[in-house]
Amino acid sequence: MILRVQTNFVEFLEQVLEVLKEVEIDKTECSTLLASIQKQQLVIPVVGNFSTGKSTLLNRFLGSSVLPTGITPETSLATELHYSANERIEAFSNNDEKTESFELNEQSFEVIKENAAKYSTLRFI
């Protein structure tokens, strides 16, 4: 719902800017507002005990198996999901510096799981 409203507002502002091209008027505020809305992200925390189905719930919501699932804790690191046409996993060290990028596949999940102590956060993009 929120994404649809955001998309509609962006389309409206783009139309306003198109109309304003023909008029001698400062378009800075409208352009700034448009950029701000396009950058806005909705953050929804999903928290719970180990193996309570958080990854399964998110996979179902996304319509594909993006996050690993299993009986043992699979996503024991803080994990963020972001949309991208170029899907990958970015691992961040304990000082929040990006250390490695991985392809989105089972082998990557195993490598990440084996080296989990090196990372503080994973970002699925």
From TrEMBL:
The protein's UniProt keywords, in alphabetical order, are: GTP-binding, Hydrolase, Membrane, Nucleotide-binding
Q: Kindly list the GO CC terms recorded for this protein.
A: membrane
MF terms from GO for this chain are: GTP binding; GTPase activity
Tell where it localizes: Membrane
Q: List the InterPro entries.
A: Dynamin_N, Mitofusin_fam, P-loop_NTPase
Kindly give the Pfam families that the UniProt entry links to this protein: Dynamin_N
Q: Where is the Dynamin N-terminal domain?
A: 44-116
Protein name in UniProt = Dynamin N-terminal domain-containing protein
The species this protein was found in: Helicobacter pylori Hp A-26
